[in-house]
C-alpha cells in the first residue's frame, strides 16, 4: 500500500468531523477570494481618484492594470468555485 493510499484511507476513516472541517476550509477559501475581489475593486476606485487628482502619463496604463486585476480576481474566484 502506497503512502497516498494510506493517506486516503486515513481521511475516509475519520467520518463527518473531518468532512465538516473540509467544508469549512472550502468556505473560508471562497470567502478570501471574495475579499480579494473586493480589494481589486477598491484598487480601481483608488486609481480613478488618483487620476482625478494627479495628471500624468501613467493614467491609462494604471487604469488598465487595475481593471486587469479585477478580471484576474474574477477568474480566480470562478476557478475556485469550480474546483472547490
TrEMBL record:
Keywords: Membrane, Transmembrane, Transmembrane helix
UniProt superkingdom: Bacteria
Alphabetized Pfam families for the sequence: DUF5657
Keyword Transmembrane part of the UniProt annotation: yes
Transmembrane segment boundaries: 23-44, 64-83
Protein known as: Uncharacterized protein
Native species: Candidatus Beckwithbacteria bacterium GW2011_GWB1_47_15
Amino acid at each position: 500500500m502506497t503512502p497516498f493510499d494510506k493517506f486516503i484511507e486515513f481521511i475516509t476513516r475519520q467520518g463527518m468531523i473531518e468532512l465538516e472541517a473540509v467544508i469549512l476550509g472550502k468556505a473560508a477559501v471562497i470567502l478570501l477570494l471574495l475579499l480579494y475581489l473586493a480589494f481589486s475593486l477598491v484598487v480601481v476606485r483608488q486609481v480613478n481618484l488618483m487620476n482625478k487628482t494627479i495628471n500624468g502619463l501613467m493614467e491609462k496604463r494604471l487604469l488598465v492594470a487595475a481593471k486587469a486585476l479585477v478580471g484576474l480576481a474574477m477568474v480566480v474566484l470562478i476557478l475556485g468555485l469550480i474546483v472547490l
